[in-house]
Amino acid sequence: MSITKNYFGTLPDGTQVDIFTLTNSSKVSVDIINFGGIIVSITVPDRDGNMADVTLGYRNLDKYIENPGYLGALIGRHANRIEGAAFELNGKVYELAKNDGKNHLHGGITGFHNVVWKAEVIGEKLVLTHTSPDGEENYPGKVDVKVEYSLTGENELVIDYNAVSDKDTVVNLTNHAYFNLGGHASGDILKHQIYINADSFTPVNDECIPTGEIRSVKGTVMDFTALRDFAEGFDSSDEQIKNGGGYDHNWVLNTKGNAGEVAAELYHPESGRLMQVFTTKPGVQFYSGNFLDNLNGKENAVYGKRNGLCLETQYFPNAMKHKHFPSPVLKAGEKYHHVTIYKFTTK
């Protein structure tokens, strides 16, 4: 596996942003920039060996500064939504930015998606580090974060998340890559199939905020316990589909932190491309790109509604309001460590 570094762009304040290309012996490659830890592209073969870039993105830094859909971004301190843009920790209420209606989304205005990370190539890993100061976005504690990206000979993109804080705080890191296994410019995702290793999910209200219920998927359009088409779900009268504008929900994984067990699969029958997801996280957010709004992407592609989907491994959204959910609280001096793997094969 090799890693090369090239110039990508310059921010308005003069800071240079670089792009790192990870390539393995099968010519599979991943492009990552140190602005926002963003995955710009993932190029993998189909069943006939034809290569295609299967993640949505841009080749222009200015687009990533805007990036309304968080394309490819590293998300923190807290991925997903926090109800009312506030949480209570150790008897104190922390008020956060209201950047999703009256709620808090993906770490706020100056979330991890919007900073330049220090980047080093160490062995066969791209190592990104960032220190989030105490009080940033009104989160408590100075948090030192390290995220390692590596690409294996088995076509696995491994993301290794690490953090430590000097005060009790909340940390919930993920990546917001949008996948389209037909190729990033191939149109909608409606011919994909999905499997999620979860017997239950967390229902949401009409603001996409989990209500606290953990509900069985059995007999509903949320049941992906066998690989199946999901396009028909968009036409469902199910209240959850209406609340999310499609799929925008967290599934309660059966894997129980076992990164050796498949958490989810995405399959594109036409190309034969199969992506398997492995993670130590307790949940995964399947987001079907419901709010993509004709973004001008790479190679003159236009990304409209449902032209890509996300499988964001995570702690459950709104977990600070529902104490029976796995807790995103990181105690002072303790280590946050999670791993997520996206493995690409064909069948």
TrEMBL record:
InterPro entries: Ald1_epimerase_CS, Aldose_1-epimerase, Aldose_1/G6P_1-epimerase, Gal_mutarotase_sf_dom, Galactose_mutarotase-like, GH-type_carb-bd
Binding-site positions, beta-D-galactose: N80, R81, H176, A177, Y178, D248
Keyword Metal-binding: no
UniProt cross-references to Pfam families, sorted A to Z: Aldose_epim
Biological or metabolic pathway of the protein: Carbohydrate metabolism; hexose metabolism
GO BP annotations, alphabetical order: galactose catabolic process via UDP-galactose, Leloir pathway; glucose metabolic process
Subunit structure: Monomer.
Protein name: Aldose 1-epimerase
Lineage: Bacteria, Bacillati, Bacillota, Clostridia, Eubacteriales
